[in-house]
Specification:
The complex is a heterodimer. Chain A is mainly alpha-helical. Chain A contains 30 helices and no strands. In chain A, helix 8 packs antiparallel against helix 9 and helix 18 runs antiparallel to helix 19. The C terminus of chain A is likely disordered. Chain B is mostly helical. In chain B, helix 4 runs antiparallel to helix 5, helix 20 packs parallel to helix 22 and helix 24 runs antiparallel to helix 34. Chains A and B meet through helix 6, helix 22, helix 23 and helix 24 of A and helix 31 and helix 32 of B. Chain A: Pathway: Protein modification; protein ubiquitination.
Amino acid sequence: MDEDLKLNLREVKISLQKAIHDCSTRGLMHSTKWLSELNFALKHIKVDALPPHELAVSDDEVDDYYLAKSYFDLKEYDRCAFYAGKTSSPCNKFLHFYARYLSMERKKIDNLTELFSGPEPKTSGELQQLCKELRELHVKRSMDPYSMYLFGVVLKRLDLLDEARSVLAEAVALEPLHWGAWLELSMLVTDRAKARLLSLPNHWMKQFFLGRSYLDQQMNDKALEIYYDLQNAGFNGSTYLLAQIAIAHHNKREVSEAIASFHHLRKIDPFRLDNIDVLSNLLYVKEMKTELTYLAQEACEIDKYRVETCCVIGNYYSLRSDHQKAVIYFQRALRLNPQYLSAWTLMGHEYMEMKNTNAAIQSYRQAIEVNRRDYRAWYGLGQTYEILKMPYYCLYYYKQAQQLRPNDSRMLVALGETYEKLEKNQEALKCFYKARSVGDVEGSAILKLAKLFDRLLDVEQAATAFTEYVNENDSAEAENKSELSQAYKYLANFHLNKNELDLAYNYAQKSLNFEETKEEGKALLKTISQKRGLVEDVKQDMVVEDSDAND
Amino acid sequence: MPGDSDDEMKINAERPINIDSYRKLVRSHIDLHLYTSALFWADKVVSLSDGEPEDVFWLAQCMFLLKQYHRAAHLIQSKGLEKTHLVCRYLAAKCLLEAKEYTGALNLLTCDDNNLSTNVSGINSVLELSDSPIEGFPLSNVHSAVLFLKGCVYEALDNRSLASECYKQALRSDVYCYDAFQALVQHQMLTSWEEKELLTSLPLSSQCKTKDEEWLVKSVYESLLKKYQSVPPRSIVNVHPRLQGNLDLEVAKAERHYYACSYAECFATTTEVIEKDPYHTTCLPIHIACMVEMKKGNALFYLAHDLVDLRPDLAVSWFAVGCYYYLKGKTDPARRYLGKATSIDRLFGPAWLTYGHSFAIENEHDQAMAAYFKASQLMKGCHLPLLYIGLECGLTNNIKLAEKFFLQASSIAPTDPFVIHEKGVVAYQNNDYATALKYFEDALDKVKEINEVVIADKWEPLFNNLGHTCRKLGKLSKSLEYHREALVLSPLNPSTLASIGFVYTLAGNFAEAVEYFHKALGQRRDDTFSTTMLTNAMEALVSDSPPYEGAELTSDCPPVARLRPITPNQSQTSTADQSALTMTLPEKGTTPPRSHYGDMDMTDSFQDENNS
């Protein structure tokens, strides 16, 4: 990806259009949508005389195909499976398997009485049967790339991830334009080592895949680089790329850039709901209430029963501290799609707010089950176990979160705090240092460090840390007044003990500004002035002075 | 004119009348199932011909067909025909059998010499008596029928070894006597080895007219023989191409699929057969078993209702009802209807086995064993009852006894992977892991022979047990491999996931262990083993691993750091944790292999449904 991406856009467009046809004949709606969006971005490219699309079904099976496909489109999956299963052409076969899979999924959702219910034995049995049939085909090597994709999806569902990865890689190698397969694969490539093991085709679609998986792995800069390259290569009109770039900014906590990109996107494509929940998260973080309300209303008008809409409304209620209602909306989102990751995580947060740790744990667990790379869920789990006073669990979850976001100080601070609770001070120190070195976002690491040193009676270190802390927070409007006042007090005392009276005076003065330490500050100032007097009085006898100071 | 009519009306006793036309009339009435008319005219024929034996035979035949058994037997015996005509003797005996007068029937069949010995001359003594043949019955057929009847009588008298001997003789004297063949095969009287021997001993070449015919008979019989032992589903015996779609052969194919645990294929085949012939008697038990296995409750409900409405007199109808209740977990009604099935046909093995299962799933080991014992008496040639008795013994912690039953089972079916597997489990419970491993691997080889492409899901316990055994033997990586394979067969299985976690814990890979315990708990939330293990592993992991990802690079720390290396004190705690883990090992060891039972039970539940 280092070399410049150069694409023959005409060829790209021709292949895109062929792929759109292929996917839509097979009822792969999401891939069709994605490909069509991309194709639309190349609207300015003129392609003359598209090659005639031939159906992937032999002539004598075309009747079965039309019948099955019409049932499929009307979501009569069992019926579709019945008719498509009677014939043997790959396209019909795929339709048969896919309809069966979708039917199972829909029944699972329909039969869902409780969100937290375990796996249903009946559907999992059917899924296994489907998996068995697909595996037989795969072993016999009589499988087209689309069925292979479905096989991968089923394997993933059954938690056979290694096999799923290799099958999906095989599928994309055979049919590189099927975005759905890439997408599934990107969710399975949880780290770079796994990506390296796969032999992926060197196709321009791979760039989209890489961008996506980098983004999922929180390697946002790399993802951005790829996306910019793609934009420069001709896809600058792609709404997908715009959204992805916005998400990258969101991940990098560059909130205003992200919001700007989203607004840009909404101007181009005002009725687009995809990824809109990310925007609502951003607005939530920024506490932009009116904006969020507006967005919620807007989304509600476009489609009430979209997961994204439900998440936006959930966020809206959460911002208004109406957690009960927020939970209801997240639950609605999950009823629509139990695999919708961010709803699980957000619901976990809501339960945390409502102090319902049990439900919070369940929600976070589900989130992780859907996507192991959701660091927020891991972090949330850590927090719940902290409340439950189970430090080892807590440590484990924080560590998972930290692995996913190695440069996020919040996890490191959380880790350090937990180590502190376990009296593992050395580890705690390490964590706070690390948090400090990766850019202390909340500014708490240095304070924690200082306090820890204080507790370890390492006065020098503590003082250095405190000094750094107050230097950083001096100008700020001092959100955390008591911490700051305590820091000033500590420093005043420290310098007093060291007989650095000017510094001590300085800090003591500062501590006067706070209610909490006013009295103590005054007392300190008194001592300082006494000492000053002493210094002037007994200038000659340094020894005496020293011993006095140490009292 | 009146004189004429007088002439006509006056019957001249001396003038011969055409009796033959009346005889023909009787025959045609019989063929048209107008038995009463046939009886009436046959009676007249007897009077007309003045008790011609052949006519008496036909009269008796009509009585038999009208279910007047005692009358028929009495007729023949009063005329003394059973002493002179073999066919009459046969009919009389048949009547007595139908009338449930077994000793009388036996007396007739064994003649005066009362020699019950099984030697050839003893059996044939009846046949060697003076015989005046009745037209239309070839001698060899009559002989074979007599022998078959004798077998039936013996069987009714619960003398199964003599019965099977008679059946064999019957089959030998007429290779086309399928009744005898079926009696032998369906009631599981012979072991596979004996069956093979019987087939080779049949005088096919002398009784079949051409080579082709000989081959036809042989191939048909072969394809119907013991489907259980070492017959891969795809290599079925070659039969005549015209017979390819024959329902009996299709049923045999379905049965093979059933034993290979490929229920979907089996069900597809049986459904096809049932569609063509909705009440195919040999197919129904397999079809029902398949429905139970695939948990098709609704379809079974409908089928059972249909059967009971149409044929309440058949054991299989009530068997279907019993199976439905068994499937729904309602053991009481299940037992009631299965009991009804066995009272209709005492030899209906599948019903006895299911009866046993209905107790077994409720942990009523003694009663289950009683039912299985009954089944084992009925089906001498079948190892399944023995296997189940062994399982029940194992569950009541009577390993010694269990072992004995498994040995018996394996003497009948030495290549059955289920039996080998159970032997392995016994060895495992005796802490003889090397032997257990040998058995399990052996079973695995056998399974692979049966399932060529994809191994059936039913074998998940075998892989897990292999995993447990390898773990006990310290082959951790091998153990992981087996557990992984088990996971492929039965994904998201919590006990497999917990086992993998456990192996990882022993291997000191706490990160993976924690992962797997988490997964296991995700599937089964209140699993105490996983919960405790998870806590242990987590603590071990925390003290094992660096405080944060990438912490090894101490250069990351700012210069103020004067950090000492991790104190030896801490690393000691981690090893202590490990030893604590190994302490829990034996407890764990015994639990997982147990889990095979539930699965095994279901697996074999209806393994031999076709024994009706």
